[in-house]
Amino acid sequence: MKAFIKYIAVELGLDHPGAEYPNICEGTDRYAMFKVGPVLSVSHGMGIPSIAIMLHKLIKLLYHARCSDVTLIRIGTSGGIVLEPGSVVITRQAVDGCFKQEFEQIVLGKRMVRNTHLDDRLVQELVRCSADLGEFPTVVGNTMCTLDFYEGQGRLDGALCSYAEKDKQEYLRAAYEAGTRNIEMESSVFAAMCNACGLRGGSLGRSSPNCPPSPPPPHVSSQAPPIASLGLAPALPPRRVSSRAPPIASLGLAPALPPRRVSGPLRWDLLGLSRGPRQGPQCLCRDSRATERPER
User: Fold this and answer.
1) CA triplet 127, 46, 22: central angle to 5 degrees?
2) What is the dihedral of CA 161, 165, 171, 172, to 10 degrees?
3) Run of H or E including 191
4) Helix (H, G, I), strand (E, B) or coil at 7
5) Mind listing the pLDDT tens digit for each residue in 152-168?
6) Taking Cα atoms as reference points, which of 83, 42, 89 lies closest to residue 206?
């Protein structure tokens, strides 16, 4: 997000030697947020719950800051279907794993369904931008939003796999015929919340070659690990883990960091959108109890 905001600063002519771009959400460990001119650059984690929480906080922030004519654009990676690696998919609408153009959520025990069609005019604007740049292949299509990275996306190298290569290929062909061009895990709730809140929304997904529509080439050995069927490099050999290492080392993760004390309020003044001591969004991007939980 910081690299992106630096790029935007250059594009808008707002960059200068020694310019600093502070993380406005530095007092939390949930998101990173940067601002230059009229642009906010905000991170989110993986999956629908993560981006949904961020969007609730961000939309409240924008509302209390009295922003108008807001456009939200999500930028991320995705698995492409019958696409040249590196192609960018401009999402027309998000679909679920059954190719339905909807986002379903249970609210107070009841099934709520929201529309996932993104702004048509913004789609066309993004297409024109791509044509002007001419730097990478761009297509417009549906984006499948799944609930997980493995079985939900037809991969064969997860901890569970209840289907074969043939089943995966048939499913991906059906997805392509239904207009799906890429797969990821956030677009449906993004589109649904943009629609529900009356915001222009767009989604850009850069594709990787993990969803070919045809069987692997003949030279791939039948003894290859499942990951080879996705067109990716073979899995690395297992790593020796010392018996004296902490359990977390077996996951390939770094040791836990020591508790960090949250000092002072968030720097909402850096937004340049303050409306006074009680009207600004002092608590919209962090837990209001953060100061009571220094271990965060």
Assistant:
1) 80
2) 110
3) helix 187-196
4) helix
5) 999 999 999 999 999 99
6) 89
**Please, are residues 227 and 235 in contact by the beta-carbon 8 Å criterion?**
yes
Residue 92: phi and psi, rounded to 5, are -85, -45
Report residue 265 as tokens.
């309020």
Amino acid making up residue 33: M
Which amino acid, one-letter code, is at 145? Answer: C
- Statement: the pTM of the whole predicted model exceeds 0.85: no
Q: How far apart are the first and last CA of the chain?
A: 21
- The vertex-13 CA angle with 11 and 18, nearest 5°, equals 105
Contact 101, 94 (CB under 8 A): yes
Model confidence pLDDT, tens digit, residues 34-86? 999 999 999 998 999 999 999 999 999 999 999 999 999 999 999 999 998 89
Residue 131, C-beta contacts closer than 8 angstroms, at least 6 positions apart? 138
Q: Locate 121 and state its tokens.
A: 């005019």
Q: Tell me the backbone φ, ψ of residue 91, rounded to 5 degrees.
A: -75, 125
In three-state form (DSSP H/G/I as H, E/B as E, the rest C), the secondary structure along 213-259 is CCCCCCCCCCCCCHHHHHCCCCCCCCCCCCCCCCHHHHHCCCCCCCC
